[in-house]
Structures are given as structure tokens and as C-alpha cells.
Amino acid sequence: MILPVYIYGHPILRKETQDINPETYPGLRDLIDNMFETMYAADGVGLAGPQIGLEDRIFVVDLTPLADKEHPEFKNFRKAFINARITERSGETEATEEGCLSIPGIHEKVLRENKIRIRYLDEDLQPHDETYTGYTARVIQHEYDHVDGILFTDKITPLRKRMIKGKLANMEKGKVTCEYKIRTAK
């Protein structure tokens, strides 16, 4: 089922999420399937619980559509991250343009470390402690920020934030259109 994506200005996007008990969470498998389906319908590569109105610490990432000769490591990179915790950030800090399904039409450069270590449960409730680098680390950090109530616009320069202030204000007022199903604050 395709769910609405919550848009900038909705208070759920600023809430820090809570760990879930995956063994007693009703319909966890269906939720994960719905999150992937919603993400695909919106042409995204990641989606977090708050973006669909949940205060649950869960996000999904699928880089498979980006796999090519230059990035064969993206092939079959489709994962759910339950109760994730980034335990280490390291490597060089790089500025790369990011966008977000909850902030449609805005793309800005964001500084992020290019290496992370993360612990999480997968959709089969198996624990993992893994290290990621490059673009994969960036996407995971972006989605991870969502479960901590942080948006990528919080990490851009003050000048760039002033330049997009009007667009963000319009989103807060519900003045936004998308090709996918959305829910605004208004």
C-alpha cells in the first residue's frame, strides 16, 4: 500500500523516534513492504518512519536502481534498518547535493563524513554491525537523521537556508504539489 509522505512543516518530522519491539510490533513485515512501495512510487532511494507519520525507529534504503558499471556495489542493496544506531562516523567530510521526499523540489549540498559504522536489526530481525562508505554511507546518514528528527536543511549553510526560506515557508503552509501522495501540516 502506498502511504502519504509527510512534507516539511509537519511536526512528526521533528520528533525523535522510539525503538520498536519488532517481535510484538503488529504488521512489521507489511509496514516494511509498504515503506518500500511508497518509496518506489515517489522515486526515492530511502524512506524513514517519520516520513510516513510514525514515531518508530525504522527506515528503508534501496540503491539497486542506481547500480551500474561505476557502482556495482549498489546491486541488490535493499535493506530495512530497525532500531539503528550509528556508532561511528569517520573519514573525510564531503559536500554532496541531497534531496528529500519530505522536502520536494529542493536540493542542497550537505557536509557528511564518508564512512559510518551502524548497528541495526534487518527485516528478518537479525542483528548487524556494519561499516559503509561513500554514497551508501550518505544515504544511510540522511535516513538516520530522520529518525532523530533532523532534516537535511538543518545541515546546510545559513546563506543557502536564507535562499530557500520562502520555499520552505510555502511547504509549511501546505503550498506544495508532488507527483506522489503527500500529507502537509495544513
- The total count of strands amounts to 7
Report the total helices.
Answer: 4
**Average pLDDT over all residues:** 96
Shape: globular
The helix/strand class is: alpha+beta
Low-confidence parts lasting 5 or more residues at pLDDT below 50? none
SSE layout:
Layout: E1 5-6, H1 28-41, E2 46-48, E3 58-62, E4 78-100, E5 103-121, E6 127-133, H2 134-147, H3 158-163, H4 165-172, E7 182-183
Parallel strand pairs: 1-7
Antiparallel strand pairs: 2-3, 3-4, 4-5, 5-6
Describe the structure.
This protein is of the alpha+beta class and 186 residues long. The chain has one domain: Peptide deformylase (Peptide Deformylase, Alpha-Beta Complex). It is 23% helix and 33% strand. It is built from 4 helices and 7 strands, in the order βαβββββαααβ. Strands 2-3-4-5-6 form a 5-stranded antiparallel beta sheet, with helices on both faces. A two-stranded parallel sheet has the order 1-7. Strand 5 and strand 6 form a beta hairpin. It is globular and about 45 Å long. 33% of the residues are buried.
